[in-house]
Amino acid sequence: MKASSQTTLRDTVTLAGNGVHSGKPVRLTIHPAEVNHGIVFLRTGLANGRERLIEARHVAVSATELCTRIGESESGAVATIEHLMSALAGLGIDNVLIEVDGPEVPILDGSAALFVEAFDRVGIVSQPAPRRYVKVLRPVRVQQGRAFAELTPRDKGFRLDVEIDFDTPVIGRQRKIVDLSAAVYRREIASARTFGFMRDVERLWKAGFALGASLENTVAIGEDRILNEEGLRHPDEFVRHKLLDAIGDLALSGLPLIGSYRSYCGGHRLNFMVLDALFADRANYAIVESEPRREPRHAEIASGIAVPAYAPDIH
To answer: Is 31 marked as a binding-site residue?
Structure first.
């Protein structure tokens, strides 16, 4: 196969909003970066004017409860990176520097659609270097109770097969399989919002989570219905969002994956564990230059409105 080129943004992108868990305002500035730079966060606004660079790699993950966090609280961390990482991976953007002045990436509308819109507004450009990939050579699987995640070899591309199974008729059992491309990401994945159960709100608030959650950024699930007036953006928005999260978490491989990913009742923790298992043995993977270039298109964007929490990571 013909190798494709690395990419970056044509210009700087700035977005602002509140963190869904911290509730704190944060400003995010995403800068173009040179070839082989990868995805790197610059955490600013630390005590005594300090700053810290954190590579977006699985080895930097420090927490996976209800979101993915890289770095350490004491020296500087950035949480809830999965939607931004998902948009970058979904559109095939390889090299950026992400400057963030707070502890958490802004939740925006709870999906990746506004990130995609911002990237499309400035444009994505090719760079004079071939893109490298992590090619899965041997199956790896991790499991927690009935939940599991696995990566298996595939000759070309990255296929995701995600299944969820919640004990509520509002969600139930949903499954979605996609061969990842920029067009598929824009059309089928980017606009799917995060979701949570109203019954969990008080517990999460006490634990310091979901302090910035509202109907404007979360699909709220009551006992037997969706509480958002506008309803769902897709009949299977729940599994689409789990797929969106998986793309973002698996982008912490540091390079695009060639292989197949399958999960059942998974979440951030299992996504991290399966990457950890992949990289635990050099015989499990190879670094190659062998994928065709993705073609960009546009994603649909919608919005919501006001008060819920977060779905359990494993269900």
So the answer is: no
Q: Per residue in 207-228, pLDDT tens?
A: 877 888 899 999 999 989 999 9
3-state helix, strand, coil in the chain (%, to 5): 25, 30, 45
CATH of 133-288, one of 3.30.420.40, 3.10.20.340, 3.40.50.300, 3.30.1700.10: 3.30.1700.10
pTM: 0.90
5-130: CATH topology is Ribosomal Protein S5; domain 2 (3.30.230)
Residue 99 and residue 136: Cα distance in Å, rounded? 31
Q: How far apart are CA 76 and CA 55, in angstroms?
A: 12
pLDDT at 131: 97
Report pLDDT for 301.
Answer: 28
Catalytic residue among 21, 31, 58, 268: 268
Q: Is 31 a catalytic residue?
A: no
Question: For residue 190, which of 268, 81, 87, 66 has the smallest C-alpha distance?
Answer: 87
Residues of the chain above pLDDT 90, percent: 79
Ligand-binding site membership of 313 (annotated): no
Decide if pLDDT at 309 tops 60: no
245 among annotated binding-site residues: yes
Give the pLDDT confidence score for residue 308 in this predicted structure: 39
For tokens 């006992």, what's the residue?
223
